[in-house]
Amino acid sequence: MAIDETTRKRNALELYQIDEDSIVPFFKSHKAELRKFIQEHSESKLSLLELLKQFIRIYRLPFNMQRYMSVQSTFIRETLQERVQNRQDAVSHWIQEHAGRHRDRMIQLQCLFLDRVKEHLLPAIQAMLDDKSDDPAEEERTVYRP
Q1: How do the pLDDT tens digits run along the chain, 146 residues long?
Q2: Mind giving me the DSSP string for 100-146?
Q3: What is the pTM assigned to this prediction?
């Protein structure tokens, strides 16, 4: 029973780091890279949703870095409570042992979360990609069309 409660808390904490309100701003802040990525993969015939997932898998960036770092900090504190050793050594050890897996898991959760919010996310992303007002050179480039 304790394992189930621990797992539930850990899952809730991992999902907390995915902030739905940060998704469109995340893609806006990476708009040029996203457009280039979509253009480079235009022959793949993937849907916009699949292209977004591939983009976040390749760039490996959290939607909300502040929340991501907060969750990582919580995981470090929990690990430190289980270990009795020098704090700095423990933090370094945790980062070496767990940080990569933590980021991999977060990236996978972000991809899964896109499926959950795709109905209202995809039109917002498409509108952002279609908006040429921020870069006159972008008008000459093709934008992904489903």
Answers
A1: 456 766 666 766 666 667 788 899 999 999 999 999 999 999 998 999 999 999 999 998 888 888 888 877 877 777 666 655 566 777 777 777 778 888 888 889 899 999 999 999 999 999 999 988 776 555 455 455 55
A2: HHHHHHHHHHHHHHHHHHHHHHHHHHHHHHH--TT-GGGGGS-----
A3: 0.58
Give the tokens for residue 132.
């040429």
List of residues 6+ apart from 23 with CB closer than 8 A: 63, 114, 117, 121
Residue with tokens 């990582």: 72
Alpha-carbon separation of residue 52 from 86, 88, 146 (angstroms): 41, 37, 13
- Taking the C-alpha atoms of residue 39 and residue 33, their distance in angstroms, rounded to an integer, is 10
Q: Tokens 């430190």 belong to which residue?
A: 80
Tokens matching residue 91: 């933090």
What DSSP state is assigned to residue 20?
Answer: G
